[in-house]
């Protein structure tokens, strides 16, 4: 198959035109891809479960997702922050 023909088939495929099974990978390749996707999905589930077992990591992840937050996890309204700038004398660092 020449390059121009491949490009034409690709463009028709992107438009959803004139597609047939001979223009797709064989069933063994499709099956392998499905199995790999399932493997990756299982690994993600395993890692998430492992992260949930570690309380500190679980709290961090829930915080990153914005879950389980309440007012007691923030500074009190009466707390004031002050920016302090210090300058070293004599150019020492």
Distance between the termini: 69 Å
Q: What percent of residues are in strands?
A: under 5%
Radius of gyration: 28 Å
Number of strands: 0
Largest sheet: none
What is the compact description of this entry?
The chain is mostly helical. It contains three helices and no strands.
Describe the structure.
By secondary structure, this protein is mainly α. It has 3 helices and no strands. The radius of gyration is 28 Å and the shape is elongated. The longest helix has 27 residues, at 27-53. The chain has helices at residues 3-15, 27-53, 55-65. This is Protein kinase superfamily protein. Keywords: Kinase, Transferase. GO terms for molecular function: kinase activity.
Topology, element by element:
Blueprint: H1 3-15, H2 27-53, H3 55-65
Keywords: Kinase, Transferase
GO molecular function, one term: kinase activity
Protein name: Protein kinase superfamily protein
């Amino acid at each position: 198959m020449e390059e121009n023909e491949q490009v034409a088939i690709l463009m028709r495929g992107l438009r959803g035109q004139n597609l047939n099974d001979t223009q797709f990978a064989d069933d063994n390749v499709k099956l392998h891809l499905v199995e790999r996707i399932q493997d990756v999905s299982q690994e993600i589930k395993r890692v998430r479960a492992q992260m949930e077992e570690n309380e500190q990591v679980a709290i961090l992840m829930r915080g990153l997702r914005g879950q389980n937050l309440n007012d007691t996890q923030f500074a009190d309204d009466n707390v004031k922050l002050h920016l302090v700038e210090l300058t070293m004398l004599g150019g020492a660092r």
